[in-house]
Amino acid sequence: MRYFIYLSYDGTAYHGWQVQPNGESVQETLQRALALLLHRETPVTGAGRTDAGVHAAMMVAHFDVDDPLPEPPAKEGGLQQSAEDYLVYRLNGILPHDIAIQRIIPVPPDAHARFSARARTYYYYLHTRKSPFLRDRSWRLVHTPDFEAMNRAAALLTEYTDFTSFSKVNTDTKTNICHVRSACWVQLSDHEWRFEITADRFLRNMVRAIVGTLMEVGRGTLSLDDFRQVIAQKNRCAAGDSVPARGLFLQNVEYGDIIQ
Description:
The protein has 260 residues and is α+β, with helices and mostly antiparallel strands. The protein contains 5 helices and 9 strands. The chain folds into 2 domains: 2-115, Pseudouridine synthase I, catalytic domain, N-terminal subdomain (Alpha-Beta Plaits, 2-Layer Sandwich), CATH 3.30.70; 119-254, Alpha-Beta Plaits. Helix content is 22%, strand content 25%. It is elongated, with a radius of gyration of 20 Å.
């Protein structure tokens, strides 16, 4: 039986989603908790790979079990909790404070957390006034860039499909083709902004490299034509620096009608 597990996490303390040989990861922490409760090794496959320090408002992963999930204790005179909800409750009881399980649902055996996803949305947060409460979840800028110019540049992303210029080099990715559905900056307050981008898939480091290059547009270092040239060159060296991981969130994963 295959299940999808929906979770969120603060990535500050982790070396990313994927199991790493030299550091704690979210995937490893979740697998360890599942093994403890299900009494067997239970690998999980995520919808994507967030880098070290990147957060997830919603990550989706799948896992398989041969036997039914443990049933909750019977309740006298009350509503009986489902096995899925009971596992959510027990996982949240043993996972660290920075990982939270929202729900677990049964899915068709061919549903895949990564390959069945139709789209993913990332948010990148930044702020322009010092705040002790945002330091681990937003990037602070000393000067306010030109967000109108950055929005004009962001809109150009939907016109392209090859995003090699924004990809980490020497990855195992077979193609750098992505289809960006939307990309824009949204003002949240006088001193807080959020970059929102949705695409069918993302390359390693892609969002942070895009935001870093948009920053150069906002500072007046790059024109819109320059920004187009950065994309057209298909060269990571042509783009701007990657912005810090702490402002990046995996916000949503869409599956359409595949998952009810």
